[in-house]
Amino acid sequence: MTDRAGTPVGALVTAGQSHESVSFEALLDTVAVRGPGGRRRPDAVAGDKGYSYPRIRRWLARRGIEAVIPTRSDQPRERLDAEKYRGRNAVERCIGWLKGCRRVATRYEKLAVHFLAFVKLAMVQRCLRLLDPSNRT
Question: Which of 29, 37, 68, 84 is the most buried (most CB within 10 A)?
């Protein structure tokens, strides 16, 4: 999970055969946005069609979070904020960058806890690079 600038803010490791939408709620529960008055939930969450499930939309609506998720062809069409959805590419850029980290991309670690540790180390490295104005790659 990233913010709109592409800064990684959370990660969760699941079994390889499970769909990422199954752990959507668990991932969002691990992340809170710091704002006026302390920690709060994000205003909107963008995702691809793989997250277009009524369960996810209800979960977001109960928490007052806007779902910026396109509907699948077998679902009734919902209006999508195109400007907010365009910002989703920040997530794709961050994932692409993480895949460039050889240790993460090849997954030498057998245990999920060890793999998650290397993902988090890569996330810290990404954050440090984003903070350094002379190195924006």
Answer: 68
